[in-house]
Amino acid sequence: MKRLIFAFSLIFLLLPPLCHGQVYKCVDEEGNVRFTNIPGPGCTPLEDFEDADRATRMDSSHSENLVKALLCTKGGTIGEYLNRVAGRPEIKDLGWKARRVSGGGVEIERILESDTGNRLEYRWRVTSDGRVKAINNRALAITRSGG
Questions:
Q1: What is the pLDDT of residues 8-49, one digit of tens each?
Q2: pTM here?
Q3: Number of domains comprising the chain
Q4: Which domain holds residue 49?
Q5: 66 contacts 59 by C-beta, under 8 angstroms
């Protein structure tokens, strides 16, 4: 029984670093702050697991805002356009989702569903240096060039 308790204790001690990896807080010459899992100039590691988890959430929120601010081929911004589509009575809004991707950066997705069950998925990748790229056909169709 003691071995079993020891094994579970060891798993709980090792699991958080394995799941999240090292997170770094980076400050550039202009004082802008970003969080990434790729170290570079001006980056310091976040030692505290709670700080790293908070940084991941902040990074996801920042990435989502970058996507929403992109110019849309349908007029206005991506955020405004998708809110207009989501406001239609036949559309169910499943919301924005964010997940970290290996190699750094965040994948941002907006999912809508029609009353016929057809899912409308729009997906972008925000790199650790803040560049945004549409990565599926629906997102490509509404993202103005340069986004």
A1: 443 434 434 333 456 677 777 776 667 666 677 877 776 654
A2: 0.62
A3: 1
A4: 19-142
A5: no
